[in-house]
Amino acid sequence: MTTKRILLIDDEDDIREIAQLSLEMIAGWQVFLANSGRKGIQTAQNQQPDAILLDVMMPELDGLATFQSLQADPITQEIPVILLTAKVQSSDQRKFALLGVRGLITKPFEPLTLAEQVAKILGWNFT
């Protein structure tokens, strides 16, 4: 089984650090980090991760604009994206689903179950 490669795009240092530790230590996945939408797009193009965890609320280029840029690029459009968001209203969930987002993980997330949540959303085996 090959190691999964995850790109985490979030402007909050604490969130990136906690999520990276969780995904690497619990699941053994390789994690790439980006602190902005623009850096995330560039990293996705260069690294071709298996999935992207994307914060919705970011300065400059927010999560939805970042997602739309990823979808418009033939290099990154097939990479599944999971949004990290504090917004959990059903209208927002429907909007995100219609855009083609694979799933949502609400903030604050539980670090010990983050990898399991990601695997479940993407249909990956997780043991």
TrEMBL record:
Q: Which keywords has UniProt assigned to this entry? A: Phosphoprotein
The source's superkingdom equals: Bacteria
Where are the 4-aspartylphosphate modifications? D55
Key word Secreted present: no
Q: Which SMART domains match?
A: REC
Ranges where the Response regulatory domain occurs: 5-122
Gene Ontology biological process? phosphorelay signal transduction system
Name used for this protein in its record = Two-component response regulator
